[in-house]
Specification:
Helix content is about 45%, strand content about 15%. With about 270 residues, the protein is of the alpha/beta class. The longest helix is centred in the middle third of the chain and has 18 residues, at about 105-125.
Length: about 270
């Protein structure tokens, strides 16, 4: 069985002591593609270095995370845009709106999100959307500006109705470790949605699934998420592997991207 981790921050400092070993562990468990969303300009070099070390397994995105929208975000976005226009990235991300901790810069977050969505539409790239406590705001921004790029609403935490809206707009739902948490209401929502709209993700090093909850997350743990989804959908684990990996391939065109990267390195 092969799995795709569509959202993992393997360049994070939490992996400084054993990064290469941790990646090899994931590969040995059958995680054949790991997609890395960028956070801000400070994460670019480490992300690209890791992609260079494992070019057939680790694939980069480029974007500015909503929690990293500062006073100079417009200048930062211009540099992000140049990266996207002049280098190869599999998606635009991690972008979106986060109103969980701070609503004071909502207008700047929204403007940065729309700008990056417009860029993704122009470049014909999918997106990875962060929508913590802001699912409706992200949906409205997409609908009002007709930014139907395709991609994933990462770390899904919305309602069933919102999930149907997102799917109708052409986006998939990212399922991570939260689905394994004891008091999570996510399983009941997922029971009512076709698995062809799901992709798997870890969001490592964050949100480790049970039985690793509270510890550092890593891409190898995506198997625990897959087991839980298999239980919810009453499917064999291999079916979950096959379907979610096919969904990720359809959204991100992973095989074509890795082949292009291989040719560029020759």
């Amino acid at each position: 069985m092969n799995f795709t981790d569509t959202h993992t921050h393997l360049y994070a400092d939490q992996f400084s002591d054993d990064r290469s070993f941790m990646v090899q562990r994931a590969i040995s468990k059958g995680i054949t593609s790991m997609l890395l969303p960028n956070i801000d300009l400070s994460s670019v070099d480490d992300m690209l270095a890791l992609c260079k070390e494992f070019p057939q397994y680790i694939l980069p995105m480029m974007g500015l995370h909503p929690c990293n929208i500062g006073a100079d975000w417009q200048n930062t976005i211009q540099i992000i845009e140049q990266h996207l226009r002049h280098n190869s990235y599999i998606a635009v991300g991690e972008i979106g709106i986060d109103l969980h901790w701070d609503k004071s810069n909502f207008n700047d977050q929204k403007a940065a999100f729309i700008y990056q969505m417009m860029l993704a539409k122009e470049l014909q790239l999918p997106v990875s959307i962060h929508s913590r406590s802001a699912t409706l705001e992200c949906i409205h921004s997409i609908e009002q500006n007709k930014l139907f790029t395709g991609g994933v609403f990462h770390c899904w935490g919305g309602t069933l109705e919102q999930a149907k809206q997102v799917i109708d707009m052409g986006f998939a739902i990212g399922i991570g470790g939260v689905v394994t948490f004891k008091n999570s209401g996510l399983p009941e929502i997922l029971k009512q949605i076709d698995i062809n709209h799901f992709v798997l993700e870890t969001d490592a090093p964050y949100l480790a699934p049970v039985p690793y909850r509270g510890k550092r997350n890593e891409s190898a743990y995506i198997i625990e998420i897959a087991h839980k989804l298999a239980e919810i959908k009453m499917l064999p684990l291999k079916a979950v592997s096959d379907i979610t990996s096919a969904n990720a391939e359809r959204i991100f065109n992973i095989k074509a991207f890795t082949q292009k990267q291989k040719l560029n390195s020759i």
